[in-house]
Specification:
three-stranded antiparallel β-sheet, extended, 2 domains, alpha+beta, 4 helices, 13% strand, 52% helix
């Protein structure tokens, strides 16, 4: 995730200080969510072996599903960042999100239907 380990005395108010038996041992500085999104996008590019903008539509939809599951769209400007990485418009990213939600709802509906004995 890209956290940084620090001495407890270097901790800022938004860092996480870890204690053991009442003594501060270590501080962890977590990256800002926007930095994490950049790391996730870079990892997805490495995984696919090409820039995300070069992927086909179906694969881009899959990337959006993965990013949504990881909370990418809760980050300020997350949709814009993802749209830029995918080489599509914000509107297209929203369409991909809506499509993924519809597919998930259909799948859940199929799972919830009662089984009939044949």
């Amino acid at each position: 995730m890209g956290g940084e380990l620090l001495a407890p005395q270097e901790a800022r108010p938004d860092d996480v200080v870890l204690a053991w038996e009442g003594a501060d041992i270590l501080a962890v500085r977590l990256p800002q969510l926007s930095e994490s999104l950049d790391h996730i996008l870079a990892a997805l590019e490495r995984q696919h072996g090409m820039p995300l903008a070069d992927l086909d539509r179906k694969t881009k939809q899959s990337v959006v599903r993965i990013l949504e599951a990881r909370g990418a769209f809760t980050v300020r400007h997350g949709v814009e960042t993802v749209a830029s990485a995918l080489g599509v418009s914000r509107f297209t990213v929203y369409n991909y999100i809506n499509y993924a939600n519809e597919q998930r709802a259909k799948a859940q509906g199929a799972d919830e239907r009662p089984q009939r004995d044949g």
